[in-house]
User: What shape does this take?
Amino acid sequence: MVNGYRPASLEEALALLAQKELTPYAGGTDLMLEKAQSPREYLFIGALPELRQICTDGEYVRIGAAVTFTQALEDERVPALMRRAVSQIAAPAIRNAGTFGGNLGNGSAKADSVLIDFVLDAKLRLVSLRGERLAAVEDFCQGRKKLDLARDELIAEILLPAEKGESWSYHKVGGRSALAISRVSFAGVYQETEGRISRCAAAFGAVSDTVLRFRDLEGMLVGLTPAQAREKKEDFLAAVSRRMQLTAGRVSAEYRKLVCLNLLREFLAEHGI
Amino acid sequence: MDEIRFILNGRETAYTGGAGDRLLDVLRKDYRCTSVKCGCGEGECGACAVLIDGRLMNSCCVAMGAVEGAEIMTLEGYRETERFTVLDRAFARATAVQCGYCIPGMVLAAEALLRRNPHPGPEEIREAISGNLCRCTGYNAIVEAISLAAKEGNGVW
Amino acid sequence: MEDISRSVVKKDHAPKMSGRSVYVGDYETARDGRPILFGKLLHSRLARARVLGVEVPPLPEGYFYVDAKDVPGDNNVNIVLDDTPVFCRETVEYIGEPIAMLCGPDEAAVRRLASECRVEYEELEPVLDLRRAQESFFDYEYGHGDPEKAFAEADRVFEEEFETGYQDQTYLEPQGMMAEPEADGGMYVHGSLQCVYYVHGALARALGCPREAVHVFQDVTGGAFGGKEDFPSILGCQVAVAARKCAAPVRCVFDRRDDLEFTPKRHPSLSRYKVAVKDGLITAMDIDVRFNAGAYSTLSAVVLQRGIIAAPGVYRVPNLHVRGRAMKTNTAPSGAYRGFGAPQTFFAVEMMMDHIARDLGMSSLEFKERNLVRQGDATSTSGEYHFPVPLPAMVEEVDALSDFRRKQREYAAPQTGRYHRGVGLSLVYHGAGFTGSGERDLIKAVCRLRKSAAGEVEILASNGDIGQGVRTTFPKIVARELGLPLEKVSFAHPDTGRVPDSGPTVASRSLMVVGELLRRAAIRLRESWEEGREQEVEERFREPDYLLPFDLDAFRGDAYPTYAWSVSAVELELDTCTGQTRVLGACGSFDVGTPVDENIVRGQMEGGFLQGLGYSSMEKMDYDGKGRIRNNSFSDYLIPTAVDVPRLECVLHVEKYPDGPYGAKGAGELPLVGVPAAYAEAMEQALGGDGRVCHVPFTAEDALLAMAAGET
Assistant: This one.
């Protein structure tokens, strides 16, 4: 292969990555659009069997980094919330090629699967010749095109905590109903345990440099009954609003904030809050 | 082994150019598969869509290194099949072809749908072609055509 | 159904369906087998500047730099006036203005060389804001009656301003032209275009050669919608000049980004309406229209004419004053796009009527119906509606299909919950054919039928198939009159070397005007048919007798021989959390006369309607403070996908036009014209309260911010 490498195993891929300056290529749908400054050498990892598995181990659903969105949509083990979000990515041809690892690797807050990684508290298994480590997704995604990923590391798996009967909400705002890049996206996960809120997670995508999640603010509602939470709702929303320093993009920051708060309010209302 | 080997429209072949070269360009220039059109160059219109291992993909977003060992089909190959004949008749009856530029991608998108779902409803058809832009028809006639092909297919899918 | 309306398999279905059609970008070599050089334009980076010089990198053997100095003839592309140059003169007037073309055998090398060119500019102050633009290319005024008196005597006077944005044609096949020098010294130019003879005329001037030394062919064209009416003349001259210099075939096909940024789009507009109402009837309108023409005049004169003629809408306006100006700004020259000025003003007048009705406490439809023109009434330019105005019947058809009246009442009540609904309806016309006396004085269409000894007939005309089906409908007409099977009548893509000038493929004229000429020619051929002999019959345009001649200086007379009519209805659902809309229903009744192929005409209605929906909602395009169009990719300039609309329902309402073939009228542009107002009215209802939509596109952001501002 000229200007590229196609390793037969993950081990081989990591060895190559350790020696050379290579660009990992899984699905290619983001990479092929970039105008690289100088000619790139690709490391084709999209077919590596180690990266294409979906499995469960009781605690997590483990999605290989080169699993495509279509593959995930056809597998009921993948949490329904993730399948919902992924079903609205672009269009069939993109979903057939795009991968979970690539969606993370692109370092964009518009990445639809990354929003769900954030709201579900996903962990990433990162591998290199030097070993492997687990990273929380919000530690991994540090900003626009800024990832906690060493030059010789690959994302191997995305670990999504197994579903435990939560209810969830998802909404994507794009410019149209298909082939749309997110302008605002929202995902919420809610659970009650013995009449009290045990989980009230909300994540906002496409509105800042990374996906936004305010765990400390979520803490304002955790442990309360829905009725108590209703009392605190306006304070909670106001606190979220103050915390949101949004960027403008194709749409204004004002619009983004309005939509985020509306969707958050709607999400709470769905659960009697 | 410098070459990238793959199967194009049923024939084994090898590409000796760069692994980062765009499949769209290679298909059009090296293999003269000019049915594969460039509408935007960034995966947003579907005019360049081909079937890779039976899956619809935008060839403008695929690097040659990724097709090693793959089976690629373009309309040049597909038009020799019986399934194409069914689609051809249906598109003709529904007058679904206007300027023709989106058609190669649409036809392959239809094939990608029907091989998995031989009896799709209108919503499923629209979803299947949601990545293929058409500016001429307003999509009605194309959806009609695919629906007609599915009905008249007579077990061909 | 008329015989002629029965749908047939299109004659160009097979090659397009099988992927065999050759578009300009598909040629492997020139006709004579020579390799084709790749051409890439060097575009201005600034909206207005003096070009002091260009530092060209060293060019390898076989690579060329081509600019104005290389134009053998006249560095002017005549569109209506002579202002657009082939390559820029001393100044550049918009971002994207072509400075030069780089040519060579290897695409990557040419792109690299183009990127290495260093242009030295002396920056000048551009004019970018339409509202503040001072210089106009054209300034028209017309009217009748005594508007001042009517305003003084009115019960109510309403005044409002409306704005429309760009719309890009977004043909799936980008602009592309190719030039091939011929052995005898001639030049053969072909590509993606609408008007072979426009390109031909421009080439003869730019190359400074006799007209016979150039011929132009229309390749299979992947969509146009007006966007390839004037631009191919410019690009054609550029590749021809380059081919002359390089002494080799040169092809330039635009990248989508360059196409979105630099080629002509629909004119953005600002319209101010002042309307007098007395006893529930309109007594006067005073209308001021400004179109953003961009940096060169190109087609703006004609677009403006059509726009201001349409400005009073489908209503009786006894006292009228209209002023229209095409303003110069340092942006890409605006051009032709389906509707050609009318979508802009019809949006404005329909919304004006909606708002007046609301203020008067009437339903908008009721108010409009009271003021509709009828057959025999004067047109806006003091011509006459010679033929039936079927709008009332068409309203009933649309109401039956869409349940409009009931839904309008239902959704008028205050709505609760997250999703709000609304319906809207508009009534419009499209003047069929060229504005004014252009057909008679400028175009002077000629077409021919050539019969072989074997009895096969070829149509010789310059109208090109751009997807609208003339390669099928023209033969259908001729075959019918001659009693021949369709396979025996052919119509190839036009080549100026072989066909006479039957006029451009614009203004919804091809079928109505040229189709009718062909029908008459076919009748004459039938009557003079000689078995076993070669024959040729020619037919020339004759203006219909009933027309009141149009005086362009006075804007008086019949601006169009007839009108196509439409009633459009849209139902939508608005998500009050996000501002997003879902179109629940879309339907229209269209009177384009007898369809010369039902499926083909439906296809035009459906395609045009969807373009109208895109224009209303998601197709936002504007330029920044430097004059640069930022949404220059398909991920940023959004057109509807198959999942963005439900099935469009279309009714073809037929009022036969006696001077069109079998009663057919101009059809192509009509379906887009009424959609923005129908969409906007539906949006207003969904917004609730006093929500007003005065601009399109009206996006999700617009909707949400309108709700948040408490306007609703």
Summary: Residues 236 and 242 of chain A are 10 Å apart (CA to CA).
